[in-house]
Amino acid sequence: MPDHPTGSDTLPLSLTVNGEARQLRVAPWTTLLDLLREDLGLIGTKKGCDHGQCGSCTVLLDGKRANACLVLAVVKEGSNVTTIEGLAGPGGALHPMQAAFVEHDAFQCGYCTPGQICSAVALVEEGRARTPDEIREHMSGNICRCGAYPNIVAAIEQVLAENAR
Amino acid sequence: MYDFDYHKPSSVADAVKLLSADPDARAISGGQTLLPALKHRLNRPTYLVDLSGIAELRGVKREGDKITVGAMTRHIEVQNSPEVKSAIPALAYMATVIGDIQVRNRGTMGGSVANNDPAADYPSAVLGLGATVVTDKRRIAADDYFQGMFTTALEPGELLVAIEFPIPEKAGYAKMRNPASRYVMAGVFVAKTKDGVRVVVNGAGPGVFRQTDMEQALSANWSPDAVAGIKQASEGLNSDIHGSAEYRAHLVSVMAKRAVTDAG
């Protein structure tokens, strides 16, 4: 077995981040969140509690929402990661969920918003939540300290309604 | 986090070899408990053995009168499994009330059952259904497996591989969630099986335990009213900022009644 590793030990890692293939080297203890923010400069994904309780670091991992703070980057070799920076369309056109958040004023300070939006995009994709109660239940992993919850639910309801048309 | 090395074996045999070679090695499944512990520096593993590359640890199978869930099966997969939903709907329901979707997309049944957090959900289903915990070395009956807070019959280097659930006639689960953390304040799993009735309490005490007064009452009369009047003693139950032992004891009766109603 190897001796205790030193801080210089890194492992190769291939990831697709927001559509772009990246060949990286990371220390085994690097979380996906720290990789995104510190190494790739994608600071839209926020570090709130860093313990999987607040959801502000929510990203889409192979299309499923996850707390980036509770995923070791090396574990996700070969995965597809989408962050808030990857949601907008060509030319910077807002994703419908981003547009709905703006329209409904679904934030105050905005710190939890990237995680809220990534989570809400996955909620729509999952197709399990329809009613406001179901939306609240399925957004329970994302906390908003400012209490913008009614507006967040309204924004998600609007996107669900648009998709149902 | 302290620094550590990383291995990703592709077989149970290789994982066990790595875990047995060093007492300070740790297995990582979904990481939803281990990573917070590492960040608090409660743990200093020399290396992590990532179980996510081991295909034989994944998936749900129905064989005869039992459902086998691989240790690396994620909560979301249990929640969505057609086999679990049809054979043990209470187990599928339980998965839907674990944490939040971010956690359910990553967390695994094996991780939860190996960790045996007093506030975990799955241990009550494992004990309540009289399941068998299968490791790389042996088969452990649920009654022998859970040994109190964060303690199980697993030995150092022993790997939980799967859990076999006998399919019950009826089962139900009810849980009072802490509204912020969604951890269980008190939960009750009830099951009517061919070997008798089982009632298991989780979240209220330092570990899961059988509520034998309620088991007797339900054996005589399977109905919500049969358990509603049975009081759980508060001695030994958890008391913290979220609720006193007396409050949790009261919740046990309420949750038992709801679990029986849920079981039908």
TrEMBL record, chain B:
Residues 1-170 form the FAD-binding PCMH-type domain. One of its GO terms (molecular function) is carbon-monoxide oxygenase activity. InterPro entries: CO_DH_flav_C, CO_DH_flav_C_dom_sf, Diverse_Substr_Oxidored, FAD-bd_PCMH, FAD-bd_PCMH-like_sf, FAD-bd_PCMH_sub1, FAD-bd_PCMH_sub2, Mopterin_DH_FAD-bd. It is an enzyme of class 1 (oxidoreductase). Signal peptide: none annotated. The keyword Secreted does not apply. The keyword Oxidoreductase applies. Keywords: FAD, Flavoprotein, Oxidoreductase. Its EC number is 1.2.5.3. This is Aerobic carbon monoxide dehydrogenase (Quinone), medium chain. It comes from uncultured Acetobacteraceae bacterium. The lineage of its organism: Bacteria, Pseudomonadati, Pseudomonadota, Alphaproteobacteria, Acetobacterales.
